[in-house]
Amino acid sequence: MDSTVSVLVSSLLLIFSTHFALTIANNLEFSRIQPTRMVTKLIHRDSIFSPYYSSNDTVADRTERTMKTSLARLAYLYGKTERDFDTHDFWLNLHPSASEPLFLVNFSMGQPPVPQLAIMDTGSSLLWIQCAPCKSCSRQLIGPMLDPSISSTYESLSCKNTICRYAPSAECDSTSQCVYSQTYVEGLPSAGVIATEQLIFGSSDDGTNAVNNVLFGCSHRNGNYADRRFTGVFGLGSGITSVVNQMGSKFSYCIGNIADPDYSYNQLVLSDGVNMEGYSTPLDVVDGHYQVILEGISVGETRLVIDPGAFKRTGKKRRVIIDSGTAPTWLAENEYRALEMEVRNLLDRFLTPFMRGSFLCYKGKVSRDLVGFPAVTYHFAEGADLVVDTESMFYQATPNIFCMAVRQASVHGKDLKDFSVIGLMAQQYYNVAYDLNKHKLFFQRIDCELLDE
Question: How far does the signal peptide extend, from start to end residue (predicted)?
Fold first, then answer.
């Protein structure tokens, strides 16, 4: 009886807190934007359309970089939610370029428009870009920074405006402007002025769609990230300052084949034009992260034997985050062990297994040796199934070695034994839609190219 009451109270608090945030956003001193549909391309870090692309990169180069980036992301996600988590040992082996993005959002800001490529991040809320003049900033390869003194649509936000208090570490400067400061996982900051500006997306028919008075951070001081070719961060979190809450509290992204550098149909959609189809499951927002309820895992027709209590939420340590910034899926200890055991039961008789770091790997090729391997299904609350095929479940680490794109989170610290993250590889070939008003997440399996037909 006590546990039932506890769950009910937690649910009511979640509904109240989310409703409160949306109500505050509706009543703040800036106009909510209601465009019909805002759509733009998402560019994978290793795409031929990316400033990071190198024709000299091997498959091994790309996968190693992606996995190290995802390791940093795991630390960020857990460290943000468990502020007493001692991450010192966890950081020692991180690669210096761990801040590299997975996907970049292609858009422009200002009038005249200034092109931008910002990191897509569902784990933070503020949209910010580098602005001139900028101290300790990275040199932009795609063009000049936005200069507020030149743009005719720029307007700084007064610190007397109600929304200022919701910006990261908000303060009032000597000219009564609202200023912010946001520190990222490497300890490098972004600091500047909260302002409004014109946001321009390219439409699906190669036209443009402009929206005025979008709240954003105009960053005049940034940490000098090594080898950074992005211009800012496109926060898609649930916070009051988020572009999502300014545009109808809905968004979606569609991800195709991450391993194909020529794939050009990845896309981000904002506002009421979001395609809300497919399976749906309850969506929670806790500590600024989008969370779902995982109820089971199957491999083919075999439902894995996992302690039913493993999927019950017991405080902050039991959480399943759905994330846009990590490639592999990280599973809690019990869930991972059950999945690995079933995979090994199917493959060890035919292929040579070995551990590559903390990844289960085999000698062979995905395209040749996994023909007929059953799909893995993540079962979420209310009957929503995320079906993961071999291209999303495994990755080709080298020309002759492939690995499982699922990892046990607790190998990087015992505090992570109940922590899970559904990564982008599991979301390949899906349109994933978020409805913050109705607290729903949708999975629709589709080729992204078909969304605009």
Answer: 1-25
Task: Delineate the domains of the chain, giving CATH numbers in brackets.
Answer: 26-52+101-270 (2.40.70.10), 279-452 (2.40.70.10)
Cross-sheet strand order for the sheet of 401-404: 353-356, 359-363, 401-404, 394-398
Instruction: Name the residue with tokens 């969370």.
Output: 291
How far apart CA 267 and CA 12 sit, in angstroms, is 34
Residue 139 CA to residue 116 CA, distance in Å, equals: 13
- The mean pLDDT value for 44-57 works out to 91
Please say whether the beta carbons of 435 and 250 come within 8 A.
yes
Q: Which residues are paired to 377 by β-bridges?
A: 298, 387
Mean local confidence (pLDDT), 9-20: 42
φ and ψ at residue 244, rounded to 5 degrees: -60, -50
Tally of CB atoms within 10 A around 357: 12
Neighbours of 318 (CB within 10 A): 16
Q: How far apart are CA 260 and CA 422, in angstroms?
A: 21
C-alpha closest to that of 240 among 194, 208, 200, 279: 194
Q: Mean pLDDT lowest for which of 201-205, 227-231, 421-425? A: 201-205
Lowest mean pLDDT among 23-27, 143-147, 168-172, 327-331: 23-27
- Give the separation between CA 143 and CA 140, rounded to whole angstroms: 6
Phi-psi region of 368 (alpha: psi -120 to 50; beta: other; left: phi over 0): alpha
pLDDT at 39 over 50: yes
**C-alpha separations of 328 from 90, 246, 309, 384 in Å:** 18, 30, 24, 20
CB 77 within 8 A of CB 329: no
Q: What is the pLDDT of residue 2?
A: 44
Q: In this structure, what token pair is assigned to residue 203?
A: 């439409």
Q: Which residues contact 236 (CB under 8 A, 6 or more apart)?
A: 120, 121, 122, 125, 242, 243, 244, 251, 324, 434
- DSSP letter string over 81-129? H-TT---HHHHTT--TTTT--SEEEEEEETTTTEEEEEEEETT---EEE
Which residues fall within 8 angstroms of residue 287, CB to CB, at 6 or more apart? 80, 81, 316
The kind and range of the H/E element at 39 are: strand 38-44
Buried b (16+ CB within 10 A) or exposed e, 380-402: beeebbbbbebbbbbbbbeeebb
CB 115 within 8 A of CB 130: no
Contact 128, 244 (CB under 8 A): no
Cα 143 off chain centre by: 25
